[in-house]
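Forum: Protein Structure Q&A
Topic: Joint prediction for protein chains with partners

I've read a bunch of threads here and the consensus seems to be that you should model interacting components together rather than docking separate models afterwards. I'd like to see that in practice. Below is the full input, 445 residues plus whatever partners are listed. Could one of the regulars post the assembled result?
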Amino acid sequence: MGSFVLLLASILASWTLLSREPRVHALEDGVAKLPVLGYNTWNAYGCGISEAAVLSDAHMLVSLGLRDVGYTHVNIDDCYAEKNRSASGDIVASAARFPSGMNNLTDQIHALNMCYSDSGWYTCAHYPVTPHSFLTLHDRDAKLFQDWGFDYLKFDNCAIPYDDIIRQGIVGKYERIATAIAQLAQDTGKPPLILSLCEWGNEQPWLWAKRFGQSWRTTGDINTSWGSITSIINQNSFITWASDFFGHNDMDMVCADPSTSSGNSGITHEEAKTHFTAWALMKSPLLIGTNLSAISQDNLSILKNQEILAINQDPVVGTSVSPFRWGINPNWVSNSTHPAQYWSGESQNGTVFMLINTLSKPADMFFSLTESPWIRAGRQYAVRDLWTHTDNGTAIRNFTAKAVPAHGVVALLLTDAGDEPPSSGPPCAVLQWCMDKNGTLAPGA
Ligand code: GLA
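Posted by a regular:
Agreed with the consensus. Here's the joint model:
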């Protein structure tokens, strides 16, 4: 009893100490500066995972050319464990699903990477987790995951003893696992496990989660339907400011293939392009949630668009695109079926534009260049189309994307091409703000 009290007291003491010095910046500890690219088993297999399936998908990442464009992480989601811990308290890998053991698997796949845990009583599929009590198993579990050869930990949110957790505050809830990971890295000299928080946006993780991990889910589980995709885009359109290097809004899996993803009610080719473009340019992790053995060539080529991936993986500019105009809604209106349509952001090579036609019929999409804060007035811009992979001339003052297909997307990279020609029209592109020093508006305003 005496040692129990001592242990409890020392845990409380270190907890108090930690609480006084919260980390307020992104975890710039060297891992996951950029969004993680890879594969996750959940949407394709659910609990039907096996060693053979994981190995097969890892090999397919290579043979399909996905690894070579950046998808290097193979993440095992729920249901990898036995239902009970060992006598000594460790999580035990499922003998039926992973008969050769986790180390054998991770040895075979370099950069195989994830292990899944949860902060409640059990995972969403009722498997053992890292429980949140004072006598924690966080250190033990983090060490086991690292010993198994994993370098990424997804920390889920099912089966939470709600008031016991909330009594510690949301910071307290996650500080233990983050501290266990930091301590483990210090003790072993190995890079810290990447921590992927998954509480579905319930507690506004964009406000605090970057203290603890490198990504945080912002929404519930995706299914491959246009309604699910627009709803996630809509919710994320209000929090784009939260993503930057070492900390990313996680919009959930990329389920680009209508024919194979679970929960699928069908998406079109154009919708799959919009889905992938929005996730990539909003700097979400890109975790493929499709069964690779059945992936279509069409969707493979969407996932391999290297000009889009280059923006997601920009090593110089970490920020997301953000809406500059909502389009068919008044600005700042939440509309889960018709999210913001006009977006822009910075990149190392120029200004990125994303136009989403949320209507169910083709539409021309027009904008003045200086509606984007990243564009300079009085300049002309070379236009690169990131889907047709063509240079489309020069934009002066405005741009019209003609006949954007229903639910389709346009992704452009605009680079400064010098002063606009003298014949470009009235003195200012936005006349109502164009004032002469004598106090009169410009002609035509
Ligand atoms: C939750 C998560 C999913 C997946 C499942 C596994 O629903 O949001 O991404 O990890 O749990 O049970």
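The mean pLDDT is 87.
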